[in-house]
Amino acid sequence: MTALDLNPTQPEFWDGKGCAHCEAKQFAEAVAAFDQAIALDPNYCRAWNNRANALCGQKKYAEALATYDRAVAIQPDYHQAWFNRGLLLAEIMAYGNAIESYDRAIAIQPDPRYLHAKAEIGLKQKLFA
């Protein structure tokens, strides 16, 4: 544990609290913690991404999508936000847009999880066609 872990004046402190709330499925509390991180640093894209994850946990998909969009607007090479955006779009069956998000993530970081998620879109499209 570092001093930063105990310093509520740092956005990382609140981001960590938000992640802990997400793990406990306390999504409203998580959003509030991520909002604290963002209030301290409006350009802290990790908190924007994590806030969107918490909103997905609440099934607030439109707000989550706008929040992922904010994260990638702040840091266009943040591959995790592009991937999470793709997951959300796949969840709501917006497969073309999901593929575009996965492609952005893969172009930045060719993570096998990203490649697998993109490949699953083809299966989902066949199942729900």
Provide a brief overview of the structure.
This is Tetratricopeptide repeat protein. This protein has helices at 11-23, 27-40, 45-57, 61-74, 79-91, 95-108, 112-127. It is mainly α and 129 residues long.
**Cα separation of the termini:** 51 Å
The CATH superfamily of the largest domain turns out to be Tetratricopeptide repeat domain
What is the helical fraction, as a range of percent?
over 70%
Shape from CA axes? globular
Second-tier CATH architecture of the largest domain: Alpha Horseshoe
So what's the CATH class of the largest domain?
Answer: Mainly Alpha
Q: What is the SS-derived class?
A: mainly alpha
Average pLDDT over all residues: 93
* Strand elements, count: 0
One letter per element, helices H and strands E, the order comes to: HHHHHHH
List low-confidence stretches.
none
Major sheet summary line: none
Radius of gyration: 15 Å
CATH topology of the largest domain: Serine Threonine Protein Phosphatase 5, Tetratricopeptide repeat
What percent of residues are in strands?
under 5%
How many helices in DSSP terms? 7
Q: How many domain modules?
A: 2
Describe the overall structure:
This protein folds into two domains: 1-59, Tetratricopeptide repeat domain (Serine Threonine Protein Phosphatase 5, Tetratricopeptide repeat); 76-129, no CATH class. It has helices at 11-23, 27-40, 45-57, 61-74, 79-91, 95-108, 112-127. The protein is built from seven helices and no strands. The N and C termini lie far apart (51 Å). The radius of gyration is 15 Å and the shape is globular. It has 129 residues and is mainly α. InterPro entries: TPR-like_helical_dom_sf (IPR011990), TPR_rpt (IPR019734), Ycf3/AcsC/BcsC/TPR_MFPF (IPR051685). It comes from Pegethrix bostrychoides GSE-TBD4-15B. Keywords: Repeat, TPR repeat. TPR repeats lie at residues 11-44, 45-78, 79-112. This is Tetratricopeptide repeat protein.
